[in-house]
């Protein structure tokens, strides 16, 4: 089969040289100039429109590690860590029976988690937050890592209802009204942690290695992970603890207007 472009070349012939005049050359020059001006004008208009919509548009063209602003980005420091397996022989310090000592260990992970940030930082957030009554110029915020730890702690407590009776939850076929708060709270926490794990999407690789003693390949979880240094984030949290008790009943008007992101990618001006 012949190339279609061959047929096009056969039908296009150049005009005889004698038909090209200074008038035609001038006309073509003017036409090319007009086309260039029109193209530049169109490009300028497109750049102007892009500049206007870009600040409020979520796009995957940005650095995926800094798609949304957080005031704690200054505290982000990556490190390599190997998890405790969590079975006998490789337990973590948190795997001890329920006790005041264990409660304190968990509390120390996030009990400073409600933070104060400046108005400039609040104005750069992807969602609007509220000013702190009695602490002019500062706004309330919480890093999600600390909320996740709070939620995981509540799930832990619900797993030992004999020690934490206030966190005893109802089973599928045994709804107890007095346990409504704990049941709903733990349900919220479980699903929040699910979403957070899926959001983080840890791509560290668990491997299988041959064990002569078992005459089989055994799954190995003691592998390297790229992690964010939690001590740095905890230090940031301590440095931004509230200076006054937050009163949610006090409403403060401000001039901050930021896009509020909803599920499904929808945005709402706040």
TrEMBL record:
Pfam families, alphabetized: UstYa
Membrane spanning residue stretches: 25-50
Entry's Gene Ontology BP terms: mycotoxin biosynthetic process
Domain of life of the native organism: Eukaryota
Signal peptide: none
Keyword set includes Transcription: no
Classification via PANTHER family: CYCLOCHLOROTINE BIOSYNTHESIS PROTEIN O, YALI0B05434P
Protein name listed in UniProt: Tat pathway signal sequence
């Amino acid at each position: 089969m012949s190339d279609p472009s061959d047929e096009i070349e056969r039908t296009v012939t150049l005009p005889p040289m004698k038909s090209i005049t200074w008038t035609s050359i001038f006309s073509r020059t003017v036409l090319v100039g007009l086309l260039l001006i029109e193209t530049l004008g169109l490009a300028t208009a497109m750049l102007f429109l892009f500049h206007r919509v870009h600040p409020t548009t979520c796009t995957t063209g940005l650095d995926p590690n800094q798609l949304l602003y957080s005031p704690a980005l200054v505290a982000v420091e990556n490190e390599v860590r190997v998890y405790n397996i969590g079975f006998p022989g490789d337990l973590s310090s948190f795997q001890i029976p329920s006790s005041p000592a264990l409660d304190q260990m968990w509390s120390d992970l996030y009990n400073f988690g409600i933070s104060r940030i400046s108005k400039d930082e609040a104005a750069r957030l992807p969602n609007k937050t509220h000013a702190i009554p009695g602490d002019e110029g500062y706004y309330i915020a919480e890093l999600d890592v600390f909320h996740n730890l709070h939620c995981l702690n509540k799930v832990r407590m619900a797993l030992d209802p004999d020690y934490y009776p206030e966190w005893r939850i109802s089973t599928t076929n045994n709804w107890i009204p007095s346990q409504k708060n704990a049941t709903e709270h733990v349900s919220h926490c479980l699903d929040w942690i699910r979403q957070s794990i899926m959001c983080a999407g840890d791509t560290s690789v668990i491997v299988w290695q041959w064990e002569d003693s078992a005459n089989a390949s055994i799954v190995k979880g003691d592998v390297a992970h790229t992690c964010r240094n939690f001590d740095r984030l905890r230090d940031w949290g301590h440095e931004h603890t509230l200076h006054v008790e937050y009163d949610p009943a006090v409403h403060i008007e401000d001039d901050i207007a930021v896009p509020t992101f909803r599920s499904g990618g929808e945005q709402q001006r706040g």
